């Protein structure tokens, strides 16, 4: 049993050191005060709610006047379009291959934010090739001056493509559920972000929480393990910042099945209220409040 696992009861079999993905310095596109903040929404395990959180968080922030774009950074298996019930004629792939202009691929959504969608089932975009890397970077650079916030809805895990898209962001939101498998994978991802991208902190959102206080306790447990085993370049342990919990709520599945935004379909349900609270925290801590 890896030594880390002995200290965290919620995740009894934490993995050993995560395999190093092809490195490269964190490429965070530094946005000046006039440019968008870039936040990556990522996770260790798949299916934990990244796309649901990204889309609804974007809607909540757009409501307050922020200019928000969600980019489907899950380039090989994109599904933001499915969740938003959009049928893009032009996608990010067409921009990458020079078949379309960036302007033509940006779609407006019913949530009041813009979306840049990727196609699905395109194996050539599931790997980080030098072409994908440079095209991705130029798209982000072109978008930055036009928005207050770019949310990157990444794939799950620690593939080089996921790590590259996360490296473009100044802030990272890790979505995890309270399940041990999700937490062990979250830990692995956080470890890679500390060691490979030299991040000093990441932000945690615990989705599908079943009890109040779940997220804070889980974040505390993960922090204890990090404090013991991972130190950042500065010599300080990586800091986990708990941003909020989203309860498990049947209205979420219902909204996803109907391909509606939860915030529009059931704005008063517990999960929608939690998203609004999370948006408020992000706006007050990470964004310049909209005029
Ligand atoms: N708070 C919640 N309450 C209930 N169900 C939820 C909640 N959040 C997410 N779900 C369910 O989890 C499913 C997966 O969510 P989502 O597609 O956003 O995950 P993901 O992390 O983006 O997945 P992937 O790793 O495949 O990109 C949703 O379709 C929804 O049914
Ligand atoms: Mg997703």
From TrEMBL:
The keyword Isomerase does not apply. GO terms for biological process: negative regulation of cell division. Residues 1-25 are annotated as: Disordered. It comes from the Bacteria. CDD domains: FlhG-like. The keyword DNA repair does not apply. One of its GO terms (molecular function) is ATP hydrolysis activity. GO terms for cellular component: cytoplasmic side of plasma membrane; cytosol. Keywords: ATP-binding, Nucleotide-binding. Pfam families: ParA. Transmembrane segments: none annotated. This is Cobyrinic acid a,c-diamide synthase.
